[in-house]
């Protein structure tokens, strides 16, 4: 099996894909085993529901990347760079982060005790054993609920969870970045502006940052 060009999905076993640029790809539900992705660019990529087991990502870049419900068992990220990266409900069993660089990285409901060569006390990472509690005003809740009027935002599943409730991790990150007033204004703006598929929260963040 190879790559599905229409979705960007990977289905590879025992292959080498070094020095490739996968920036902005949607690797949702990809399935790879024992593959070499050394020195690759995975910036702003979604690994939602993906399985990358026993793969090598030596010296690769993961800026604004999101691992949600992913299985990374036995993979190696030696000297990789993680910046504004989210690990949400990820299998980290045997994952090796030797000499990796972290900047503003979040681990949510992901058992870091099974990972190798990572300091959970590193100030550049935040670890949450459960979804953080976030105060959301009625005005903000109403704004978030209205985002489903945009089919591209609705399909991205950035703002909701499996049970249909608001994604509190998403809201925590956005509120920290923008505050409530600017966030509400930004969300109302992007609701009208987004007219294409997207797959990560980092895309929303970049759009709001551009709003005057």
From TrEMBL:
Gene3D superfamilies on file: E3 ubiquitin-protein ligase SopA
InterPro entries cross-referenced by the UniProt entry: 5peptide_repeat, Pentapeptide-BTB/POZ_domain
A Pfam family the protein falls into: Pentapeptide
Top-rank taxon, per record: Bacteria
The protein, known as: Pentapeptide repeat-containing protein
